[in-house]
Design goal:
This protein is an alpha+beta fold. It has helices at 40-57, 76-83, 100-120, 126-142, 156-160, 166-171, and strands at residues 2-11, 15-23, 30-35, 64-67, 87-90. The protein has a three-stranded antiparallel beta sheet, sandwiched between helices. Helix 1 runs parallel beside helix 2 (76-83).
Length: 172
Amino acid sequence: MCIDTFYIGNLKGVGKMWQLTACDAASSYAIAKVVPANNATEAALFLRDVVAVELKEAGWKLWRVLTDGGSEFKGAFDEMCRELNLRHTRTKPRHAWTNGFVERLQGTILHEHWRIEFRRRYFRRRYQLQESLRSFLRFYNFERPHQGYRTKGRTPAEIFWGAVGKQHHEEV
């Protein structure tokens, strides 16, 4: 699982917002959350409460995470990796392409979602941002076919949820 952070912006009435993003390297399946702070505690909670839970529901074992060397992936994040018995690998400094799956995903979310949504809507609360992101991820994972060498025209959900059936997760 590749994980990274993305600065959404300082939104009037909402404050500074970041996006924590995880991308499954085998299926391109995307998981993301809007958070008010870019720190190790938020990243650790995202890993435990969102990423690990979704992988478990899909029948997969999370055994390794790949991040950059940012401060949000040290301290509490490292402790959570130990707690979850995960191998934490970091990319080399100034080698963003090493974590390319999640970097490209964040670019896709920026171009296909946030830039469009910020022209259409005025967000007043963080939960509105999260709901908007959740809606886009539902489209990205379950409806939008991907043409990459791993997905070959399938949706990420077909691969990620294949073992337990994607209808289970779409209803949740």
